[in-house]
Amino acid sequence: MVQPLDSYTFICIILNMENKIFQKIQTKKKSTRIVDQLVRLINEDKLRVGDRLPSERDLSESLGVSRGVLRESIRALEIAGIIDARSGSGNYIKSNANINREIEALNILEEEDNPLDIIMVRKNLEPLAVRLAVKNADEEDIKKLEKILDKMKNNSKMKIIDNKIDGQFHIVITKASKNKTLLDIMRLIVLKMQKQKFWQYTKEKSIYSLGHSSLYLDEHSSLVDAIKNKNEKLALETINNHLNDVEKDIREYFG
Model confidence over 36-63: pLDDT tens digits? Predict the structure, then answer.
């Protein structure tokens, strides 16, 4: 007796047929078109709650987009509660795509920056701020950094994610540079990180899924010590390592 195919195998077979259910993405904002297409397939009952999506490689090839664009769309759908991304297993349809969930996913894609764009700017901006902070930080700046660091240590013990305190840390360092233009730019970047769901998603994953809370805390602590001791070489090495580690975490979900 022939056994019925499970949903995942069935979808993969369909992908190789002449009349594919997935269509090449042609528009400029490809990530939003991916959301539109997946939501349509759910509403047409071609994708059902519990179904596993094809692999990222197969799905990106079928849609004609890069894996980065696909991942951005998947993350938006995950945040909106439509997809369940299971580490080591794949992406599953979590719930029916009602209009509110679809709008939330589309709004995230339309209004937010990709975290990789933010980290690219930070990697070019913050080493300059740190170098100037090593030269110009006064006792008051160091006291503020140490106070923030104490709060970070307490949050780490309690497994609390606090985007505000992390943002304050980087703002105080930039303020210690005594360069107002740098400070204005950093405040804008921190505001983006604090308001955007993509960045909050990455922060939560880096702590809860990747277990990098202690790593980030050690890097922040080393940076304060290096600035306090006027050790420019160590300070620059620390900030570069920290930003590289953040980028690795982001690429785990968006790259």
Answer: 999 999 999 999 999 999 999 999 999 9
Q: What DSSP string runs through 171-196? A: HHHHHHTT-HHHHHHHHHHHHHHHH-
DSSP classification of residue 222: H
* Identity of the amino acid at 80: A
Encoded amino acid at 118, one letter:
I
Answer whether residue 74 shows pLDDT above 50.
yes
Distance CA 58, CA 31 (A): 16
C-alpha angle 155/176/121, rounded to 5°? 75
Return d(Cα 53, Cα 39) in angstroms, integer: 13
Nearest-angstrom CA–CA distance, 107 and 114: 13
What phi, psi does 5 have (nearest 5°)?
-75, 145
Give exposure, 216-246, as e/b (b: 16+ Cβ within 10 Å). bbebbbbbbbbbbeeebebbbebbeebbebb
Residue 93's φ and ψ, nearest 5 degrees, are -70, 120
Phi, psi angles (nearest 5°) of residue 29: -90, 80
Query: Is the pTM for the entire model greater than 0.70?
Result: yes
**Which helix (H) or strand (E) segment is 92 a member of?**
strand 90-93
